[in-house]
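Researcher: Here's my situation. A collaborator sent me these components and asked whether they could plausibly form a single complex. I don't have experimental data yet, so a predicted model of the whole assembly would be a useful starting point for our discussion.
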Amino acid sequence: MRSLLLRSASAALCLAASAYSASAQDADTIKIGVVAAESGAFVSAGHTLPAGVGLAVKEINDAGGVKIGDKTYKIELLKRDDRTDIATAIAATQELVRDDKVAAIFGSESHDFTLAMAKITQPAKVIHFAGNSTLAKVLNPQSVAPGGEDHYLFQSEPQEFQRSGSTARGVLSLLTPLVGHPLKKSVVIVGNDATGQFLTSYYVKALKAEGQEVPEVIAYPPDTTDFSPFLTRAKSLNPDVVHFWYNGDSTLTALPQALELGVAPSYFLFGVDPGIWKERGLSADVPVAMSCVPICWGESSNANAKTYFSNYFAAGAPKGVTSSVSLLYYDYVHFLADAWEKAGTLDPDATVAALESMHHKGVVSDDLSFNASHQVTHATEVCAAAPGGAITCAMQQPPAEAPN
Amino acid sequence: MLPILIQQLLNGLSIASVITLIAVGVTLIFGLTGIINFAHGEFLMIGSFVTWLAVQAGTGFVPALVIAILAVALMGLVLERGLFRFTLTRPTNGFIVSLGLIVVLQHVVILFFGPNQKSIPRPLAGVWDVGGVRIASVRVMVILVTIAVVAMTFVMITRSRYGRALRAAVEDRDTAALMGIPVRRYITGVFVLGSALAGLGGALLIALFPVTPFTGGTMVMKGFAVALMGGLGNLTGAVVAGLILGIVEGFSAGYGFSEWTDAYSFGLMILVLLVRPNGLFGGTSGPKMA
């Protein structure tokens, strides 16, 4: 009996010691989470989020970690796959916030998922970065003020009127000299889902602001593979440019069919990196413009991007259609680490105050900062492949104001 | 306007050929064995990925297509023997197993090949321009292969001894077994044949379009719609329903509310099933259980 008691006491001591050790380890670690589609329909954009955030976390940890006061913390990244399903995204966010007690969350790639996730992150005072251009309806100076509903939410992609404006201007300016005559008529082909409809409403306004006639927006059901009837409809309108607006996978499925049908003298592919164009050995007998979100992989005019993408792929990230989406998150992990160091605490309110006041030198821009509505502004890169294969890229600054 | 109209008609035929090929596999398996295999789309997707792998390894498209057919047929054999055989008397279990298989097969493919699109160079690159109508040679190839395969399957099911025995087994498994028909083996045969057709469909699909690990899901829904519209187990029905659906899709995308294309197709399916519950050409309701 005495022996049993001694063994039990020893076991209890061991358990207590290991628990203490675990809690001490936790105390030296900052947990952050990423929720993204690593499977399902949005995977081509979604898988870039954990890859980009993971690369930044590795760089920060390899450099020693985050120094807050006299203590240095390592960052632990918890990845959750939302499977392109909003209920899964909500469950994953609840787990990260309530069980894992993360200090910050990155994601998701989808606007409506982000809004649902914010309903969990914001009351829990978890810093939340979302690379969605479409959060203007919830982010305003009142909602992000201390005590506001979205005080801890940050939009890490420029507003849609800015992104659409830069893109439309860039596409038309790069394609016009390659086509050899003024481009007057544009047809937009877009996936018929909430994001597609939302983005297109801005893009059509941006095209019209650039003087384009847009006789029709042709919507296709998501997951379409055979685009020939939609493209034939576009051809009947005699466009100068067909714009495949959202998303990259559909765009790359549709383009070869458009080339076979001879739909237009030029095309624009939204969300397709020149890197994937080259990787797949794609070619066209007419000029094809591509836009990246936000800086291009493959042929960027941005010197920092080349280094970033070589590190990104060296870390094991797959070469996807929209690998550049990772940049909507990568910079902000470093930005957040700097904010923690500046604030000298992990306190979310002090961290938000630091994020609001700081300027960060990132890959996307030398001067990243958030405006009074927690939104960033920076240029978007657009590239064009000439029929011979040569690709040229240019950064396009966003318009100051939304077109009427 | 006439060239556009003819172009849309050809587009509809091309859409119909791929859907029909899937529907033939679905209608054989569902109609003749009673196995509701919703993972049939994933079989198709794996056929595409095997083709891609073979082409990446340096084989030509035709050998890659043959490899895809054999690989997916083998997978069908393993899954029928290892999984679906145990659900024959409980079709609902088989249905749930197939739903689970969808997720498993998708994630196995993602694990080994990643989630991104895969494509191969067009096996036939030529495009003919006939009076303003553009005809891609690869689409003509897919239409011709579909016609040939459906015709061969039709002859086998309706004219051969195997086909007659199979149809007898659909009517009454026990009586067919008493007559000396090896029903279980025939069911395996149909499942393997349907899987092989999915492998062929996958190879033809990647010849036309890039595929992802999630391509199968959308394709199989249309395959089931066509199989039900035509009448389960009825190959003629599958072909006619495939043609109708393809042309409806083509014309609705070309002239109607384009975003409603899928709604038109499935609305038509609902209408047909309301008016003719056994499909346009009548069919089985799966094998009758003892």
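Model: Some features of this prediction you could bring to your collaborator: Residues 155 and 375 of chain A are 5 Å apart (CA to CA). The interface with chain B takes residues 38-41, 43-44, 47, 192, 218-221, 223-226, 228-230, 232-233, 235-236, 249, 252-253, 256-257, 260-262, 280-281, 318-321 of chain A (CB under 8 Å).
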